[in-house]
## 1
Amino acid sequence: MQNRRVGMKCPRRCGGQHKSSEKISIRLFRPEDRQLFTDMFNSLSRESIYSRFFSRIRSVPDKLLKVDDDRNIAAIATDATLPEEKMSGIAHLMINSDGKEAEAAVLVRDFWQGKGLGTVLLKQLITIAEERGVEALWGIVQIENIHSIALGRKLGFSFFLISDASVHGFHNSALLNARLEILNKKKA
């Protein structure tokens, strides 16, 4: 996958140094991007971390830094208008050992939330999954995370309540299993 520039409109409420039409570059994660990911993670609000990881972790989980382009794949978004590369978002695709299903997860820098970047990244994951023959994507979402649920619904995901979230180690929140059948989508 080559770098792809995507025009993103920035609403008027963006002030200061941000332009009214910023550019985002999407590409695959490389080993040298670990520091970019760590820097983005360290800039996130507690709410963003909790929404993605379901806990108040203080550093990027090691498994998310070990991208291999085979079964653990990540696409990143960088702000192409800045002189120094800065990660704006990352989307992970973790393909099961049988290659038929994959977990999908997206994390977007606070500034970029609500501007369509999560949609661009999740669509990129769907494309990568289709190219690799993955039949279904899934993810776990907190029932309170209305933005992720809206994004999933917009892209065709179905949601199912996980009846016993404590099985997954979560006791404080109701969880939903989000699922997208890729093969059925391609046939339609």
## 2
Amino acid sequence: MPTFVALLRAVNVGGTGKLPMADLKAMCVAEGFGEVETYIASGNVVFTADRSAREAGEALEKRLRAYAGKPVGVFIRTAEEIADVLDANPFADTPLNWTYTIFLNDAPPADTLETVLGRMDEASRKLSCDPRNRLRRAVVHWACPDLPCKQMALRRANPASALKSAA
């Protein structure tokens, strides 16, 4: 039986989307998932299931919608896919608080990173953009070396919106 990692979007972030991990675990068990483990109050859960990643994700999204009264995005990856993302990380030598990994359900157009960078002014691009930033299938690896730079670049570029609109 395959092992899956479910990453829930906007759960337990900044006081919104509150979901006790005990409730998330109970939903997974009720859905028939096995070996269910949650990770702190992150909205991340690992489980086994005798179904496809798509079927597991759809089932969990349905339960979360019933619980929250609104859609909750779920990104499902196999344990092997998560290991592949870690292996492909171009920032293994970079402090963790400078790096981001953004999971998408589908790969956006190949020029998405260029679109995001194009929304930044030249100073922001020079400060925030590591040449190793990359889009790989449905994963974005991104590094930004300091908080003021990150805040300025994100305010100007809003990469999440750019990625969403490009997808």
## 3
Amino acid sequence: MMKNKVCNYESEKRIKLMVTNFKGQVNIYFIISTILFVSLSIYLISIIIEIYPTHQNDISSDVWYSKAYSVSELLIKDSGYPKDWDETNFERIGLASEPYSLNSTKINEFEKICNSTTNLTKIQKFRDSFGLENNNLVVEINYLNNTNIIKCKPTGEKVGATARIKRIATLNNKFVEVIVYVG
């Protein structure tokens, strides 16, 4: 029994000696694992940084396309609110007398709103009626032979990175294209 206690004591002493001998020393496995960890971390961070802006641009582009599509839907399928709106009393702009059939009187009123460059509150109300608080909007209506009917650029807005939606409707029994740019 005494012999076992002596053996235990000596093995504990050896372990303590081994631990105390390694204080402040770095072995090769620690160096390799640290280099591997740092390298892998840098690689993963660079991949994330590279991918993130691409997805951010895609998301912004999808939002612009959905806004442009909803504006085109309102213009060619809806008569607006109130139904007999004009440039002084509109809540929501719609150019249709029935879906896909545009009303020339409403197009003329729409043009008046677009050309009111001095009345910025009317332009802001125009944007807000489409849910485009901070986005620029350009609307073109052309006959299919590229004859321009209206090009609505409120306050001469320049649309930078944009979404473009082109829809077909009728005006006075002729086909027209309604092009909406949002950016």
